[in-house]
Amino acid sequence: MREEQLRDILHHMPAGVVTLQGPELRFGFVNEAMRAVLGDGVREGQSIAEPAGLVPADLLEVMQQVYQSDRPFVAKSYCIPQPAADGQPPRLRYFDIALEPVHEGGGPVSGLLLFAVDVTVQEEARQRAHELSIETRRLDTRLRVLTETVPQITFTINAEGKFEYVSPQWYYFTGQPPTTDLNAIWPLLIHPDDRLRVLYQADTARASGIGWNFEYRLRRHDGQYRWLLSRALPEFLAPDKPVFWHGALTEIHDQRELSEALRQGEAELRFLADSIPELIWTATSDGFIDYYNQFTGEYTGLTQEELGPTGWINLLEPSEQAGAARRWVQSIATGEPYESLCRMRRHDGHYRWHIIRARQLTDTRGPRWFGACTDVDDQHRLREVLQTQYDELARTNRDLDTFVYTASHDLKQPLLNLRGLFDELRRTATFHDPEDAKIQGMVDGALTQLDATLQELAATVQDQRGLTAPAEALDLRSVAEEVLLGLRAQVQDIGAAVELDFEAVPTLTYGRANLRSILHNLLSNALKFADAERTPLVRVQSQLTEAGRPVLRVEDNGLGMVLPDNSTAVFQPFTRQHPHIAGAGVGMYLVQRIVTSRGGHLDVASTVGEGTTFTIYWFD
Amino acid sequence: MIHIVYMSRAVRPLSDEDLQALLGQCRDDNARRNVTGVLFYSHGHIAQLIEGEPEILEPLFDKISRDGRHSDVRKLVDKRIATRSFSEWSMAFHPLEPTGFEALEGFLLPHKLTAPPSTLTIADAMLVDLVRLAVFGPETMPAEHVESVHA
């Protein structure tokens, strides 16, 4: 009864139980669990080795050795492939197998007892864990390689604020030995000005369980402090309970320096713009003003808000607003520079003339406009005054010319009458006193001089008008001969010899009337101031200067004169070098005027008793 | 009475249907609240001038600036005016399919826009010209247009 019970228990045990008898290891008792493993083909009394492949060869061998050696054996996680069923791949099953020699009746080994406990699930779990740990190691390696390759310093800090890990870049950066006490040294490497702030911010972030993002300076291996960006995020094991902060330090020194330089540059430019006593402003690409300098506020008495993006138009003199607005819209549409001359209202309501100029700058930050309004009020008013004065002078000058011309013309007739009357008087009246004849001669001389003066005055005005005559290519010789023809009487009177030499420069581009006037005056002067002691000789010669410019020399062997220190005084009107010789004194003044108005100058050299040489530099 | 001018960018391009719906809705709302003005739209660029009583316009602009359909709202002008310059509220844009739009009330083709009304100050008229230039570009700005305004 007890054996029955025992058999029943064994039969239903979840582990496989089988007894093998005799050296052939024949099946004795095989429980249900064991049948499930070995299959249905197992019959009592059959040798375990008989159905080939039922038990793997190595297990079979071990069984035989246990039988012979009489020593139990346990195999852990032994794999027994289950036969494939219905096209399914064979499933690997794992068993803990215990082999126990059986001594029937206390004699020698008579059989084996085999227990097989199915550990497939455990084994599979173990294998999965193994694979996972390999994968974890692989990921860990990858993470480490990445962490140590990126330029950033990476770190992990625990909840107490102690460093758990810092990547090797930290050691490269700081130059600290690997044995350094990180927690002690790190705060000391932070720039003294940043230290307290950094420690406080990191502490606060840890206390509130949040990440951080701040910048500070850390001392590099060369002693230089470099700006770093520190960013870290907490890792939570349970909600609201961060245990680690993982983060990275990025060097942002250059960017920071650059943006600092930009900020400073901008501040300096703004300061510069605010210091200039001119209205300076900038506008967006759309043409809306977004900055007015300080002086604009001072000048207009309005704030940037009051002026607004287009309010500057309101500052202009009302009649100029529309035109300025039109030009500005035009400039914005085309990108062409803006320029206008406008009156701008000052804070006291007074309008001042300004030149408004604006240009478009196109760079990577997109187009913008830069403008300035320059106060030109004083210049503008001065120019207006000068223009008025100039106009007045020109008019006066014209009036004067007309007056002189009219006067000389109008005086001519009375003079003719006077001469006629005087001649008539001389013819009809009888003078007895010898002094009378002298007086007659003096009256005659005075009349002749008055006539000459009137003629020369008229000529001055006429020549003045001729100054503006167009220039043409003139043959010097033919003009000179024409002039000499007019002076033939004087030449013959004094028996003068006149030499003309135009070999070097035969033609001259000049106003014809002007050239004639110049030659006439110079030649008649030379003849007039001839020295009675010798045969008068007048030499007219055209030459080229070293610079290749034409000159004309008129040389005489006449009386000569004492030149004043300032030779230009010679050419002032009504200046007469030889008061005993008749003349109005306007001749040389005329020559001088013509020559200088056409861009040249007149030179004179003279020795008393030897002669005078005039040189005309036609063009300077 | 005040007027407000602003510019902004549409978050995404507006289709003909969007624009037509906007036109209808705004015209009704604005007519009811006695708000007049003009809206320019082209390729995501928006500019609008609105005029009306401050107690209407200020909350309206507040609502406009918080509207999710556009961003970068830039207020250019917000100031007191003596008189209204627009008789109604209208919209100017280039529909992809212009047929049918031309008959729509309150719709204007950009190149058919008239010059800013002469009741505006020259500075404000120039501002309207500039926003129009910014939205539609120089092509739709007839050269003689500005001249005729201020002449």
Write the layout of secondary structure elements.
The complex is a heterodimer of chains A (620) and B (151).
Chain A: H1 2-12, E1 16-21, E2 26-30, H2 32-38, H3 57-69, E3 73-81, E4 92-103, E5 109-118, H4 120-149, E6 153-158, E7 163-166, H5 168-174, H6 182-189, H7 192-208, E8 212-219, E9 225-238, E10 241-251, H8 253-275, E11 279-283, E12 289-292, H9 294-300, H10 304-307, H11 312-315, H12 318-334, E13 338-345, E14 351-361, E15 368-375, H13 377-428, H14 434-466, E16 472-475, H15 476-486, H16 488-494, E17 497-501, E18 507-510, H17 512-528, E19 537-544, E20 550-556, H18 587-597, E21 601-607, E22 611-617
Parallel strand pairs in A: 17-19
Antiparallel strand pairs in A: 1-2, 1-5, 3-4, 4-5, 6-7, 6-10, 8-9, 9-10, 11-12, 11-15, 13-14, 14-15, 16-18, 19-20, 20-22, 21-22
Helix pairs in contact in A: 13-14, 14-18, 15-17, 17-18
Chain B: E1 2-10, H1 16-32, E2 36-42, E3 45-52, H2 54-66, E4 70-80, E5 89-93, E6 107-108, H3 122-136, H4 143-150
Parallel strand pairs in B: 2-5, 5-6
Antiparallel strand pairs in B: 1-3, 1-4, 2-3
Pfam families (chain B): BLUF
InterPro entries (chain B): Acylphosphatase-like_dom_sf, BLUF_domain
Protein name (chain B): BLUF domain-containing protein
